[in-house]
């Protein structure tokens, strides 16, 4: 399984949607390479497929960006964040207010 290396040197697994975007671009790059090889061999290439794959790859990347932005916006509105292990926790003033309320209730 492919892992990303962060700036700190720690490795992180790719999320499912990151894998989809990565494979989409890999398939597009391979197809474009093959179409150039076929063109050099004077074979008939289908430019429409190449354009469709490039458009599809941009579409997948755009959908992933919108998905991540939606998640981030939703978490920010609720004062939540995601740890590296995938758990959700409250941050900032909301967490401090909740801690005060809990201590007052005891």
Note the main attributes of this structure.
106 residues; two-stranded antiparallel sheet; 3 helices; 66% helix
Question: How would you explain this protein's 3D organization?
Answer:
It is a single chain. With 106 residues, this protein is mostly helical. The chain has one domain. 66% of the residues lie in helices and 11% in strands. The chain has helices at residues 16-40, 47-77, 92-105; strands at residues 3-5, 11-13, 80-82, 88-90. The strands form two sheets. A two-stranded antiparallel sheet has the order 1-2. It has a two-stranded antiparallel ribbon with strand order 3-4. The longest helix is centred in the middle third of the chain and has 31 residues, at 47-77. The radius of gyration is 22 Å and the shape is rod-shaped. The mean pLDDT is 81.
Give the SSE layout.
Elements: E1 3-5, E2 11-13, H1 16-40, H2 47-77, E3 80-82, E4 88-90, H3 92-105
Antiparallel strand pairs: 1-2, 3-4
Helix pairs in contact: 1-2
Range of strand content: 5-15%
Structural class: mainly alpha
In total, the number of strands is 4
Spatial order of the strands forming the largest sheet: 1-2
* DSSP helix fraction: 55-70%
Task: Please give the count of helices.
Answer: 3
* Unreliably modeled segments: none
Return the domain count.
Answer: 1
Q: How much is the radius of gyration in Å? A: 22 Å
Q: What's the helix-strand series?
A: EEHHEEH
Head-to-tail CA distance between termini: 48 Å
The average pLDDT score comes to: 81
Largest sheet: 2 strands, antiparallel
**What's the overall geometry?**
rod-shaped
């Amino acid at each position: 399984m492919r892992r990303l290396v962060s700036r700190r040197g720690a490795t992180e697994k790719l999320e499912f949607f990151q894998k989809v975007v990565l494979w989409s671009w890999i398939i597009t790059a391979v197809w474009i390479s093959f179409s150039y090889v076929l063109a050099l061999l004077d074979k008939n290439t289908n430019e429409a497929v190449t354009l469709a794959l490039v458009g599809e790859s941009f579409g997948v990347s755009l959908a992933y960006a919108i998905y991540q932005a939606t998640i981030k916006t939703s978490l920010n509105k609720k004062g939540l964040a995601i740890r590296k292990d995938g758990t959700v926790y409250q941050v900032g003033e909301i967490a401090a207010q909740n801690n005060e309320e809990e201590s007052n209730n005891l």
